[in-house]
Each structure stands twice: as C-alpha cells, then as structure tokens.
Amino acid sequence: MEQQSVLVEVKNNIGWITLNRPKVLNSLNTEMVGIIYEQLLNWQVDQRVVLICITGEGTKGLCAGGDMRALYDLRDTNIQEEAFSFFSTEYQMNLLIHHYSKPILVYMDGVVMGGGVGLSIGCSHRIVTEKTKWAMPEMNIGFFPDVGSSYFLNKMPGQIGRYLALTSNIINAEDVIYTGAADYQIDTISWPKLKSDLLSNDWFASSVETELTRIVNHHSRESSTESSELADNYDRINKHFKYESIEETIVSLNNDSSDWAEKTKLTLLSKSLLSLKVTLQQLQKGKSKTIKECFDMELNLSMNFMNNFDFFEGVRSVLVDKDRTPNWKYKYLKEITNEKVASYFT
C-alpha cells in the first residue's frame, strides 16, 4: 500500500505535520503542498489546535526542496499546467505560514534546502541542529531562488542573502542563526525530550507563545557567531557582492588574490549565467516589494523558467544523469542582454 506523502494528526492540542517521503529527502510535490496548505487553513480556525509542529520523516532532513525531477519528466507534455498548480499552491502555503495566527514550530534537522527553506522561514519557532545543512541550491539547476527568497534573502545581514543565492553554498546551524533564518539550536539527542514536553504540557494554563518559547529555550544551547563562517567572511562578502551587476562582482573577485575570492569566482562561473543575472535582478526588485508582491513576481519567474533550456539541463545534470556537468546555453555574460533578463519578469 502506498504511504501517505504527508502525515497529519492532532495530539495534545498540537497539529503535527510530518513530511513523509524520506527516500527522496521529503521533497515537496503538488500533492504534498496541497495537503499542507489545506490542513493549515483548517487548523487556523480549529480552536482545539493551539500550535503547529512541522517535521520531516527519516534521519536525513526536513526537506530537500521541490520535486523538480517530476517537472522535468513532464517537459514534453503538460508541464505548464502542472508547474502552475505546484508553484501557485506552494507559494500560497508559504505566504500563509508567514502570516499564520498561531505559533508554528519547525524542526530543521539535516537537509533544509529550497522548498524546505520556504516551509520553515516564516515559522515562529525555527530550530536547527548540529546536522542542519541549509541552502538555496536553485542556481545548481539553472533555476532561481524562489519560495519568497526575493523577500527574506534581502532581510539577511549586508549582502549575505545575495551571496547565498548566487553561490548556492550550504551553511551550518550557526550560520543559519546568524542569517536570521532560524531562532534556536538544539542537539538532536534533545529532540525526543523536547517533543515529550510539548505532548505533556497544559496549553490552556497560560500563553501558548510564552509556554512554547519556555520549552524550546529549556532544551536549546547557546549558539555563537564565533562558529559562523558567514560572520567571519561578512566584510569580504559585502565588498564583492555590493555591485549591481554580475560582471562587476566577477571583476571585484578577480582583483582579490585570496583563495576565498578565487573559489567564490569559480563557483559563480560554474552556474547558469542566465540564472545568475535573473537572480540578481530578482533580489534588486524584491528590496522594495511586500512579501505578497515578491511571491507574485516569483510565480511569473517560475512559469517563465519552464521555457528555459538551462533549467532542464540543470535538472538533468544534478537529478537525472547526476554527472554534474551541465552544458549551459550561454558561455559569456555579455551574451545575456538586459532585455533577455527583463523578459523573465513579464
């Protein structure tokens, strides 16, 4: 019998949502985002439910992102219809979480990438662990950072959000807290006890928000920016990623003789050059937009990327053939005109 892709239950007045596709690192598909969205809508008006907890089944992660392989497999059929259904529902779900009227705790153990970030970023109590691997990896597949990135990456310190978007670098728990994308750090060994405390607490004795914060704090450990590589590299990230064009960033990195600058430059130049330019424009535009406007812009981008050669080539190289040698359409940044970039926002 096929297992349910999302497990939902109410225990001790808590609505539990468990992503249940561990074999694919709980990657989100259209069915899953639909189930989560509808359940959150129902629980928002259900007075028996005082808070929500989101976790991922298995030991490897909360969620590795959206199931882009499923879209790739539809490339010659009805991809537009399926893509619109997936992205529009996912973004509505993400937006609902940002504005949710009840506390939402999310346990960000292991892999938290792409759609997993979208699921967690708007929650009120975001917990990372020593196993957390956080990233917006869309640049690796010729896509762009979506799920509200236009909004939340711009809220990170300095140019950190821009750096993470364009490099797709994976960061650890201390880094995630430093960026503001998580609030608490616990050891994985503490999670069962924390969960037990949630299931035995009397949620009607006092403020739900206060009680939840007290319980999570009790099991948290101090997270120091001294362990954050992003904090260590803050000045150099700001120096090289402050420019309003990819070309200027590359020139700036070229003029820096450090190993870090060379590695960062090579990382950027290994990505889809079109994705780099579109993503930089996306983040520039997102600075002046509300979160709702950012999601509207990203839905346009998502649908336009369904006609983009680099997206399918990127998915092929990372998720299908797994050779990690994409043959991107454009070899030089100068080939990509401003008009070409602008066309993705229509």
Can you give a write-up of this model?
The chain is of the alpha/beta class and 346 residues long. 48% of the residues lie in helices and 11% in strands. It has 17 helices and 9 strands. The protein has helices at 30-44, 68-72, 79-98, 115-120, 149-152, 160-167, 173-179, 191-200, 208-219, 229-232, 234-241, 246-254, 259-269, 273-286, 291-305, 309-320, 338-343, and strands at residues 6-11, 14-19, 51-56, 61-63, 104-108, 111-113, 125-128, 133-135, 184-185. The chain has a 6-stranded mixed β-sheet with strand order 1-2-3-5-7-9, sandwiched between helices. Strands 4-6-8 form a 3-stranded parallel β-sheet. Strand 2 (14-19), helix 1 (30-44) and strand 3 form a beta-alpha-beta unit. Helix 1 runs parallel beside helix 3, helix 3 (79-98) runs antiparallel to helix 15 and helix 8 (191-200) packs antiparallel against helix 9 (208-219). The protein starts with 5 loop residues before the first strand and ends with a helix. The mean pLDDT is 96.
